């Protein structure tokens, strides 16, 4: 019930800076109404005549809001408008009977809070808005931007044949449920045989026949890019020679992938090539080239942990400890779940 009341005032489930304003203003309106009721006999009479409407509205609100308990804790404020009808009737009838001006003041407060509510996100953020809700306006706007951009990039690949697979890669957190499995892709193509494939599945089996690959770009103005499947296969093919120590062959395959990639907006993919190339060059003792590639990766996107690690190791090798520590602190803070290597390097640098 309290969550429904917050939604009526355009307040997020998570506590925010406008809470005190909303509560204070609502309390002031209530205090004025109580004062009028206590001092004005005519107002009390009008309120008694309005009580059936007040009771009807409150009952409507309570019953409509009570059904929302089934979605707790996945709170969805978009479910509250139906109950808001009853709350609006009750409040308008009660305050209007006491002083019509109080309804106007409450209406102005409601408009002000609506205007102060967060605007739709201008980009597809990596993480969902921290509003406390499973779905609200900000969440929906983010997902709609993602869906539209993804549909446009898939369409760029041309008509999909029956049974085609499309790979998604590095999509933002808490977003893929919006595609309804493969249903969105099937609706876009008008073909129930189309389906999404997670990148992990394609990575395990690069020979899998896929039409195209779409990836999320957190740092670009066009946030969904395309990667050709054959280009990705060349990139993945560099992994085995790297593990076997054949770094020259790995570099050849990385160079081929880089040269074949057509969509310039696929910055995350290009950064992945660059940081992997930096690892190979570093292993061959070509530190200048490794540093160049690591910096290239960082110029494409900030989300390249290994590139910073490579720069730190190069700085340590050159005796530049402060620069090395600065590079190590970022992967440690951004990837605490996988920071064993950077922490060990940092400990060695400060020993």
Could you please describe the fold and organization of this structure?
By secondary structure, this protein is mainly alpha-helical. The chain is built from 16 helices and four strands. It has a four-stranded mixed β-sheet with strand order 2-1-3-4, with helices on both faces. It starts with a helix and ends with a helix.
- Number of DSSP-assigned strands: 4
Mean pLDDT across the residues is 84
Major β-sheet strand ordering = 2-1-3-4
Report the oligomer: single chain
Query: Any idea what the radius of gyration is?
Result: 29 Å
The total count of helices amounts to 16
Task: Please tell me what the overall shape is.
Answer: elongated
Low-confidence stretches: 331-339, 344-349
Classify the helix fraction into a percent range: 55-70%
Please indicate the percent range of residues in DSSP E strands (runs of 2 or more): 5-15%
Distance between the termini: 57 Å
Largest sheet at a glance?
4 strands, mixed
Q: What string gives the helices and strands in order?
A: HHHHHHEHEHEEHHHHHHHH
Layout of SSEs?
Blueprint: H1 2-8, H2 19-39, H3 41-66, H4 81-98, H5 100-116, H6 137-156, E1 165-169, H7 183-189, E2 195-198, H8 199-204, E3 212-216, E4 224-227, H9 229-236, H10 239-244, H11 247-260, H12 267-283, H13 287-300, H14 305-317, H15 321-334, H16 340-350
Parallel strand pairs: 1-2, 1-3
Antiparallel strand pairs: 3-4
Helix pairs in contact: 2-3, 2-5, 3-4, 4-5, 9-11, 11-12, 12-13, 12-14, 13-14, 14-15, 14-16, 15-16
